[in-house]
Amino acid sequence: MRTNLSNLAAVRNLGILAHVDAGKTTVTERFLYATGTTHKRGEVHDGTTVTDFDPQERDRGITIFAAAVSCGWDGHRINLIDTPGHVDFADEVERSLRVLDGAIAVFDAVAGVEPQSESVWRQADRHGVPRIAFVNKLDRAGADLDRAVDSIRERLHPAPLVVQLPIGAEDGFTGVVDLVRMRSLVWDGGDGTAVEGPVPEELAVEARRRRRVLEEAVAELHPAALEEFCARSVLSEPTLVAALRDLTRTGDGVVVLCGSAYRNRGIEPLLDAVVAYLPSPLDVPAVRGVHEDTEQRRAADPEAPFAALAFKVNAGSTGRLTCVRVYSGTIEKGDTVWDPGTGRTERVARILRLMADRHVQLDRAVAGDIVALAGLKSARAGSTLCDAGAPLLLEPAVVAEPVVSVA
Ligand code: GDP
Prior knowledge:
By secondary structure, the protein is of the alpha+beta class.
């Protein structure tokens, strides 16, 4: 059965990167809630979060194991790979980064860029993972978006592109002005749904000034935007959105949003930004591998020979589950795969999509998917699984190349 490639365009394989305590688990939790994947909001402090499902992890209150969770937003499937923020788990972060197409870097609005956020950021740079930034905890005393953005500019990236202006501060943080659409979003309930309206009069001048700063920064980095800016002295919303998407994907700019995950403020715009700016599996370069000293390239094509990378093995009550990123081809339940590392052939008994609190059985998984395979006995994190008729070894050669530059 031919898979519609346009389905792949609606997939986002996403990681959330952060210094410990910046709010990664809370953001993940709110994503699952906003997307209807869970109906009860879990809280980190009472141990009910659904991504940290290992009891040891709950006890320690930090994310130790990378769990993959799938959710839907605005017609898109978002596969969330939960990467550990703790420095002791750098290997696991590294492995997770290999399978991501994009990431959200979460920062604390009081602390700004912290050492671990910096080291994870550098790792993501090495893997060429496009990122957007979320400055969290704007409700905290001492929170300051501008200062956090300055620390991003000074320590991580020369071109933060701030697309929101906060409304209110600290305890009075109630909403944002969306500088792309020039509309206000105000959260007055606890469920994360914003009431949209015009830009408040008292913020109109500041919002226009910041929109101008954003337009100038984008025009400086993006040739098509520059052309429009020079011709008309302003950027239209479609040009601005397209330029922000290009700059995110090339890594030339970093879109910055803000909010308070704990108070459920800013989550829906963040999901919208994931869909608008971060790449799908079709937008990233073909993955590279080797076979008998010859380089192989595999694009995200469901019709190509099967190739996947295992990035996490969970042995739990449901048996041994091997989390894989499928890079090319299609795999069906009952198929056999070859592990060139061990020379073994293994049979895939079941294919599962990992939701927060349950697993959904699938008949097949295609290029671009992140799924768990049950029935594999010897594959480990880092194993390549491929079609025995078209062998290749992915891991040593999974080196991200720069995404094609903006035309
Ligand atoms: P992680 O270590 O990055 O996964 O961070 P957590 O999501 O576990 O959050 C760390 C602590 O910060 C927890 O006690 C959260 O309740 C709290 N927290 C998370 N987001 C916010 C926020 O927006 N505002 C405030 N005030 N606290 C938050």
